[in-house]
Design goal:
This protein is mainly α and about 45 residues long. It has one domain. It is about 70% helix and about 0% strand. Helix 1 (about 5-20) packs antiparallel against helix 2. It is elongated and about 35 Å long. The chain starts with 5 loop residues before the first helix and ends with a helix. The model has no long low-confidence stretch (mean pLDDT about 90).
């Protein structure tokens, strides 16, 4: 089994925010931008 990645977790979380929580598109996009920044930081630090 392939290990889960932060990118995969982030995508599932964004889906949850959209489908289950019903957040506005602009709110989800703000979360997406923040998570993308976190993902880049994790990759730079090789975590």
């Amino acid at each position: 089994m392939k290990p889960a990645t932060p990118s995969g977790w982030f995508a599932r979380y964004l889906d949850y925010l959209t489908v289950e929580k019903g957040l506005a598109p602009n709110t989800v996009e703000a979360y997406r931008a923040d998570l993308a920044r976190l993902d880049r930081a994790l990759k730079r630090r090789r975590l």
